[in-house]
Amino acid sequence: MKFKRRKGYQIKTNPQVVGEYCYELEQKKGGKLTPKELVEAARDVNSPLHNEFEWDDTKAAQKYREWQARYIISSIELTIINIPSEPTKVTLHITNDVPDEESEETSTYGVKFYHSLDSDGTGYENVVSISEDEEKTKRLLENCKKDIGTFREKYNTLRGTLPRLFEAMDEVTEGVAL
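-> structure tokens emitted (178 positions)
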């Protein structure tokens, strides 16, 4: 088998070595590889993946807390009330006046509130400030287009099963002017 590094991923070890090592470990573990098993196997200083991990517990704990913070920031959703029936550009205004119950004329949907506009993921901006800035909106659209590309790569094996989905993604991304 030939292994290569996926676009957007950073590892120090040769991807062929990583792929072979993970595949071998998976086979030893009955055809399934878990993150916990990979960490345990990489503890051995002779493991080719040993240097991919942070073994200093103080540093690792801080990195994990930062991962948890990213998770918390990403968990927030903004509820949009009164969605127009036709696609339209929407300017977001946040108020504290949320109806207690939705009427029959009221419709809602949720949107991710915080987005990381930089490829390094070091900071997050809220969707309101992004929607009010043309350059930030453009960067969010660029990220969206990249995410669609990542989805295509990840699920490319389903292209024959879900051709309409892939055609729709192609049509939408071709129509997005950046």
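The radius of gyration is 22 Å.
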